[in-house]
Amino acid sequence: MKLAYLAATLAALPGIAEAQAYKCSVPANIARPRPDLASKSEPQRVLPIGGYTLAVTWAAQYCHGNARNPSARLECGSGNRFGFTLHGLWPDGVGKDWPQYCTAATLLPQPLIKQHLCSTPSAQLLQHEWSKHGTCMGTTPAAYFARSTGLYAKLRYPDMNALSRRPLKVGGFAAAMAAANPGLPASAIRVTANKQGWLDELWLCLDKSFAYEHCKAGTGGLPGNAALKIWRGPR
Question: Which of 50, 87, 144, 224 allows an S-S link to 171, with CB 3.0 to 4.6 Å?
């Protein structure tokens, strides 16, 4: 086993988590991902790009609902421990639709998958993100993941444990996230939750130069006055 530990230390500001993965061990052998292709329900759309969304997932909540899912074993059942994981970098459209599955995608090579498993702990999700989103960005798999993991690695997070223990609104969480990341305004953060109100993902809005921008109306996320709960998971 090759161990890759990303320290869960504090950044310059008190209470700000510096690392995304508290502990991550990459197996020597990774299951080969399946091809991810356009379909009738997920058709190919070659459209102009109007901006981007960087999506990150709160791992404690994901594992709470998927602990017995074999595809989640690396993230949830192998002794690894994550904070937020990288879901992906998505090109947004100019109108209501977005580009997807723009060109045929070959299977990702094993070394590239291993390189990014401590950010996106699923070989199949990595394949999906490249096939559906990366192929629309006019780049290579290596460059696409370097871009997405580079943006992800710069993120810092508020004290999630403390936030989980008091009444919280979506707007308050977005403000705390913005305070932890100078240059990331709260208006560039969309927060999603499951039907029970537990934090699921953050969708961060970027312009065509990958700088944070105010999210456009009608692009998802909960209203600022919605109640929000944070699942801590076993610690």
Answer: 224
127, 34 contact by CB (below 8 A): yes
Q: What's the distance, Cα to Cα, between the start and end of the chain in Å? A: 23
pTM score = 0.91
Residues 6+ apart with CB under 8 A from 202: 55, 56, 58, 84, 177, 189, 190, 191, 192
Q: Which amino acid is at 65?
A: G
Minimal CA–CA distance to 205: which of 227, 224, 226, 183?
183
pLDDT digits (tens, 9 = 90+) for 51-62: 999 999 999 999
Phi/psi of residue 202, nearest 5 degrees: -115, 130
Closest CA to 13 of 156, 153, 155, 154: 156
